[in-house]
Design goal:
Helices cover about 15% and strands about 30% of the residues. By secondary structure, the chain is of the alpha+beta class. It has a three-stranded antiparallel β-sheet with strand order 3-2-7, with helices on one face. Strands 1-4 form a two-stranded antiparallel ribbon. A two-stranded antiparallel sheet has the order 5-6. It is elongated, with a radius of gyration of 15 Å.
């Protein structure tokens, strides 16, 4: 297993599978608060997020970060590959929370 590889070191980066998105915290939605969370995490060779690797690099609100943490536990990815083998990859990914505008 060893140290996870970065996006620059793999032949094929992880690819998120559709289906799971972070839930917009209702308290923030009702207050019309938007924001972004930037998370760093490791995706293993099975395409799952290693929960111990979760690191919030930036969050506009703690409730947004909590929502992303919960979603990442359910997310699945196509694992990264290097040298024809599946490898663990360190991922840095932004998540944006934006309210739908009705003009």
């Amino acid at each position: 297993t060893g140290t996870p590889m970065t996006a620059f070191a793999v032949d094929r980066e992880v690819v998120p599978l559709r289906g799971v998105v972070p839930r917009y915290p209702s308290l923030l939605a009702s207050a019309n608060i938007e924001g972004t969370v930037v998370m760093q995490f490791v995706v293993d060779t099975l395409g799952r997020v290693e929960s111990a690797s979760l690191d919030v690099l930036r969050a506009d609100h703690p409730l947004f970060a909590q929502s992303v943490r919960e979603a990442l536990g359910r997310m699945r990815f196509v694992p990264a590959e290097a040298g024809g083998r599946k490898v663990r990859q360190l991922v840095e990914q932004p998540f944006t929370f934006a309210l739908t505008r009705r003009d």
